[in-house]
Amino acid sequence: MGDQNTGSDEELGQTRQFAKHPHQQKPPAFHSWFQGLLMLCLLVFVVFLAFSDSTLSWSETLSIQKQYQRFFNKSKQGHTPAYLIHPKHRAFLNKMKENTLQTPEGLQHNTEPHTTQQQRLQYHEAYPHNYRFVMENAEVCKVNSPFLVLMVPVAPSNVAARDAIRATWGKDQVVQGKKLLTLFVLGLDKTHDVEKLQQENQQHNDLIQSNFLDTYLNLTIKTMVIMDWLATRCPAAAYAMKVDSDMFLNVDNLVIMLKKPGIPQKNYLTGMLMWNRPVVRSKNSKWYVPEEMYPEPQYPTYTLGMGYVFSNDLPAKFVDVSKSIKPFNIEDAYIGMCIKKLGLSPTSPPDPSQFKAYNSKYDRCEFSKVITYIIGSAENLKNFWADYKKPGPHC
Ligand SMILES: *[C@@H]1O[C@H](CO)[C@@H](O)[C@H](O)[C@H]1NC(C)=O
Ligand SMILES: *[C@@H]1O[C@H](CO)[C@@H](O)[C@H](O)[C@H]1NC(C)=O
């Protein structure tokens, strides 16, 4: 996280505090008198509704009350001085208005009332329906009907990483008798060559691109776009994995693990489990999260972002539940929040030692036992893979 962003986050915090106490500002006397009268009318009306229609349950009455409250909140919002809204949010709200009015394909199934959507989206920039696909390869799952989909977030310009994966663990479309599909997920960046990317996609049909800005701080958006794509473009797959582009992935061992009899087909999320991880509050850390974004001192149990595997019923549930979870920049911990909110938790893999992060050096025997390893460079991946695939015993 750069200094620039840190600054704006502080600003954001102050703005939020401001916005929390709008009553400190004295409204003109007439204004409050009028509001009081309006409130009284609404109250009388709601009470009237509740008693006149005996078929209405208490919960229904409550929901009506909420709607009025929302209406009232909205009319109040209309008087909120513009400086109470952070510029970032303001820009975002404006964009949302456009999106909602245009209703592009990606937003079609979003039929909720305008007011709720605006209130929600002001704080929910990670919700994938805020964005639309630029490249979506909607047909690849129908043609292939995979057992497992490997979703690899990667920067648009990082062709080297994509090519290395296409030549190594992303190469085989059938592994241990099961169909696999490897796709790359990109946002937009200012420098990338649109034509080149289109050519690359024409050649491989494996790029998914959404129209958010592809930055480190936006990785949670990218993960939610992955979930949205899986839920809407590939619902028939059995499992999926989010796996980083700098990984060694032993796809054989992964499929063997997923074919084990005891592995759940629903509500299953596994990988390297992180328990009781403290939230990093040091501003110069890559993982810094300001308290305004995430107030708790610890994250719920989550699976490390380098590579986590899940049953493919979960993506739709994650997208749905993400509407009510404030986003922050740590994508794997955010998924931890989502699964917790669903009343579920990550499961330890059958053999936890198969999900490894850093290793000191390449070891042919070791690589034949694991599922993941972080290796860092495309060049290393190709070299290690070439050796790993040589005939002969691994150990
Ligand atoms: C309306 O605003 C109040 C605070 O001003 C808040 O407590 C309440 O939840 C809001 N109601 C709705 C329905 O958004
Ligand atoms: C994240 O993406 C949004 C949408 O493209 C963009 O407006 C915003 O600046 C990005 N945020 C960061 C921190 O890169």
Can you offer a commentary on this structure?
The chain has 395 residues and is α/β, with parallel strands linked by helices. The chain has 2 domains: 32-100, no CATH class; 128-388, Alpha-Beta Complex (Spore Coat Polysaccharide Biosynthesis Protein SpsA, Chain A), CATH 3.90.550.10. Helix content is 43%, strand content 14%. It has 14 helices and 13 strands. The chain has helices at residues 3-20, 29-52, 58-77, 87-102, 114-121, 140-144, 159-167, 194-204, 219-233, 251-259, 314-322, 331-341, 364-367, 378-388, and strands spanning 133-135, 148-153, 174-175, 178-188, 207-213, 239-243, 247-249, 269-270, 273-274, 302-303, 307-311, 355-358, 372-374. Strands 1, 2, 3, 4, 5, 6, 8 and 11 form an 8-stranded mixed beta sheet that branches. Strands 7-13-12 form a 3-stranded mixed beta sheet, with no helix packed on it. A two-stranded antiparallel ribbon has the order 9-10. The two termini are 42 Å apart. Bound molecules: 2-acetamido-2-deoxy-beta-D-glucopyranose (2 copies). One 2-acetamido-2-deoxy-beta-D-glucopyranose (NAG) binds next to helix 3. One 2-acetamido-2-deoxy-beta-D-glucopyranose is lined by residues 66, 69-70, 73.
